[in-house]
Amino acid sequence: MDDVVTAEEAARYLKVHPKTIQRWCREGKIPAMRAGNRYRLRVGDLQGSDPRGAERPSVEPPRAVARPAGRRARVIAVANQKGGVGKTTTAQALGSALADLGERVLLVDLDPQASLTASLGFKPAELSETIYTVMCQFMENDEPASPARAIVAVDAWLALLPSNINLSAAEVTLPNQVRREYVLGEILAPVLGDYDWVFVDCPPSLSLLTINALTCADSCLVPVSPEPLVTVGVGLLFQTIARVRRTKLNPGLDIEGVILTKVDPRPTLTRGVIEDLKATLGGRIPILGEVRNSIRVQEASASGMPLTRYRPATDAASSYRQIAEVLCAAHRQN
To answer: Are strands 152-153 and 158-161 parallel, antiparallel or unpaired?
Structure first.
């Protein structure tokens, strides 16, 4: 994959306003790739003289963290059968935060609603290659199918395996497949050596797609919003994880931890729900952090940018960066 940067990153490198970069891209003064409503630029195209005639500063992508040869990516399923708890935001915010640390990250959109794909500036309906087309190739030919053809670059260290509404058909085709729970793992296997992290954004249900994610994952990350009866939904997910282990689909599946999302600490009810959740977890499962409720989350999604890059100084972005650092430190120890 060529080193690719966003218009915002190119603007920082060239010391101009992002709108200036966008204008140069529209006018053809800088070669650029159009991804939805966003521009992606190759690092090599930013060398030399800029359209104003001035010398451009040297541009280098982030330096990747050295890792032992042969190490495969850590696959984390971001799952909760309840919708609206921040699964998509968690996947893309942690992914971009780790990419900023020099880690190579692949985000996998396993939700037919394609919220992750749209939140990164792509138009799902216009994509001809998605995770579903790769699934179809694998199921029709019964042979390894690399997802590389469908993977799109978000920037130099962050990539996306996108989705669209066609993935909803997988719930019909997967049940007829031999070893149906292992399809996603078979698809991702050829590229796991190319990344340090793979985050799978699961659909809001305990469907066969979610089971596929849990079967191929090293661990499961559970975003939870502090609402009444939250412990009931979390309990169902933990039962599913236990069943995946017990049936030998993935005996080594760990629970990475819980992330409290959309937290408004002011109501007494919120603190009560959080205390009940902590009591339910009983210290067996760590709470990795709390992310405050913020309108910036919705704004970042609408702009097609990861939260940690849209408004990096916000409390929510800072919380996700701290969680990313915790995950990164734990991963390097293994």
So the answer is: antiparallel
Residue 284 burial (10 A CB sphere; 0-12, 13-18, 19+) = exposed
SS3 106: strand
Tell the CATH topology of 74-333. Rossmann fold (3.40.50)
What are the b/e assignments for 204-241, b being 16+ CB within 10 Å?
bebbbbbbbbbbbbbbbbbbbbbeeebeebbeebbebb
Q: Which residues, at least 6 apart from 121, have a Cβ–Cβ distance to it below 8 Å? A: 35, 36, 37, 38, 303, 304, 305
Q: Are 134 and 187 in contact (CB under 8 A)?
A: yes
HSE (side-chain half, CA atoms, 13 Å) at 202: 29
List Cβ neighbours of 198 (8 Å cut-off, separation of 6 or more).
Answer: 73, 74, 75, 76, 105, 106, 107, 108, 188, 192
Per-residue confidence (pLDDT) for residue 5, from 0 to 100: 77
Helix (H, G, I), strand (E, B) or coil at 111: coil
The whole-angstrom separation of Cα 164 and Cα 206 is 19
Instruction: Reduce the DSSP state of residue 305 to 3 states and report it.
Output: coil
The domain spans of the chain are 4-46, 74-333
At residue 35 the predicted structure's pLDDT band, cuts being 50, 70 and 90, is low
Tokens 């935060």, residue located: 97
Model pLDDT for residues 101-154, shown as the tens digit of each residue: 889 999 999 999 999 999 998 999 999 999 999 999 998 886 677 899 999 998
pLDDT digits (tens, 9 = 90+) for 213-270: 999 999 999 999 988 878 888 888 999 999 999 999 999 999 999 999 999 888 888 8
For residues 190 and 276, give the distance between their C-alpha atoms in angstroms, rounded to a whole number.
Answer: 42
Strand partners, 42: 4
